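Annex B. Sample input.
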Amino acid sequence: ILLGVAPAFAIKPEKAYRYTPEQFSLEYEELKIDTSDGATLNVWHLPSEETGIPVIISQSDAGNMGYWLYMGAYFQACGLDVWLYDYRGFGESSEFEIDRDCLFHNEFVEDLAAVAGYVYKKTSAAPVLLGLSMGTIIINEYLKDTDIPVTHVIYDGYAGDPAEWVNKLKANGKDVKLPDGYLPGKHKSKRQRALYIVGLKDGYASAGDIPFRKSKKTTVKTFDSGHISSFNQYPEEYTVEILNFLIDK
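Annex B, continued. Sample output.
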């Protein structure tokens, strides 16, 4: 069963879980993680000690983490230690007033910070951050101000600069805005190794959006797919690319 959910390009969460770990008899634990500003996040941890590599999946702007459970299960079966979480306002995380016309909320960055901090403390390993569409923005915003030594990031449907993304979406008939109080800036940490997953039929994100494309720290892999649909169409090839990227083969 291929799950996944199409991006809304304006925040459209679902509270009820259509897919849960119990339905697929997965080994998992459900956790509640508190953020620094008082929200509580629902987290599904799909453990594996085979590689010792924790991977945190930051989802897109629609649905909830249940839609990415198949990806998590596939990664777990291949030896990755997987952490799925819902932003506030999504799934069974804290209630939050969502502005559906926003590209993202600054509070979602606090959500990733809470999960990354928990995972780093729990595992003593720098987490790999994987972002899907809006999730790529959340990762970049988080990397502007973190002390956790993140060394590897994976971007699927890279959104790039939020202001440029707003303009790109408007040109495609999607009227969205930046959140109040958004401040552009650069990462304070050193640049990480980055894997970019690009769908050749993606009408929004493209290889041209990728920064430092010629850098030795940048890897680009393309699939004959649309926006954040590469895994659903090519789960085995997608996972192999990620494993090769993470274990440096």
